[in-house]
Structures are given as structure tokens and as C-alpha cells.
Transposase
Amino acid sequence: KTWFSHPADDHLKIFVFSDTPHLIKLVRNHYVDSGLTINVKKLTKKTIQEALHLCNKSDLSILFKINENHINVRSLAKQKVKLATQLFSNTTASSIRRCYSLGYDIENATETADFFKLMNDWFDIFNSKLSTSNCIEPSQPYGKQLDIQNDILNRMSEIMQARILDKPKRLPFQKGIIVNNASLDGLYKYLQENFSMQYILTSRLNQDIVEHFFGSMRSRGGQFDHPTPLQIKYRLRKYIIARNTEM
């Protein structure tokens, strides 16, 4: 069960979501640190390192948008979502598959490329921002390509249900992904049935909006970046009234 009743109205449901950008960073961290077991195959960063090494010494031009910094992530760089999404991207998956098709011996190339492509599509589903049509099905608002999008969610849930690390229990990111997939499906059905909504802009389900708002509130105090409740009240009032009039 990934929802609970609204405390003021039992007829309303509140669905629970983990922060999707944080989840993809956690998957990346475990992949580069200890590897992931996907469908009995142990996927490690060695695959990426071999592909990068081959491309650096080869005369062939294979498009890679990543480098060693994406797999040797340290300190504050681990907080950057961009590094994780660039690693788990369709471009990286296609580049690995291209190396393998040219006859290079790369460990678990096909399995790694398939997993990266799935991670890319899954993140696209939870990061839709525009209601306009898009030729890439997973990045469209959830509900516009329901069969394709649900197939991606189901495949991701199936992987996360299994033991992908040498641990007796599922890790937090596995539970978070499973909960997100179930909540998105349940939320869409609930909104469609009760409010006739046709799609969901899923980028509004993560905590980026809250973080941006909090950053705006802190920045309005200059060097006083730890506002009291009363200061937040006045800063919020100023933000609402004057945010479109400031130069």
C-alpha cells in the first residue's frame, strides 16, 4: 500500500513518493562502488572502464558523453544528479553496444547496455515536464503512452524485487523505486477516475521544487541564511507580491 487517507477527508488519497533524482544517485553509487547483480549477471564499472579505454586508443569515433569522473565520483560530486543521468543514459548504452558490435571484448556489454537503457527510460518517465507531444515515448507525460510506460515500470520493479547486491534485504533505493512505480500507477488511476485527468507531469513529484523554494527564501536574507519562522513569513510575503517586479 503506497497511499494513505487524507486526515481531514477520508475520501481523498495521499500517495507517497521517494525523490527520484536521489534514487538514481543511489543506484549509481552502488553500481560504481560494489556493482549490481541484474538477471544473474554481475554488472560493474569495469565495463565502462574497458569501453572508455578502447575508445581512447582506437581510431574509431564512438560517441561517449562520459569520462572517468562519472565512475570515480567523490565527495560533493555525488550530489550532482547530472553525473548519474549521463552515466545511465541512452547515449552511454548505445556506445557500449556499438563497441561490442565491433568485436571488442567488453565484460557484460549487452547486459550493461540493456540496464542503462532501462534506467534512462525509467528516469524519463519520472521527469516529464511538458504536456506537448514528444517523439520519445518514455519522456512524454505519464498516461500518454501508458502501455509503453507501464512496461518500463514493470520491468524495473521486477529487477528491484530481486537481490541485486550481496545483502539479505532489499536496500532503500530498491524499496523506493518499487514504491514510486506503484504510487505512480495508483495516482494516475485515482486522478483519472475522480478528476478525469489525462496525464501527469511527473517532474512535479520530486523534491526539486521544495529545494528551489527553500533556496530562494534563504537567498533573500543575504548573509542571514538561517531564517526564523517569522523571517520566513515576511520573505514569503515579499516573494509572492514582488517576485515579478524586481529587476
About this structure: The longest helix spans residues 172-195. The chain has two domains: 3-204, 210-242. The CA atoms of residues 36 and 43 lie 5 Å apart.
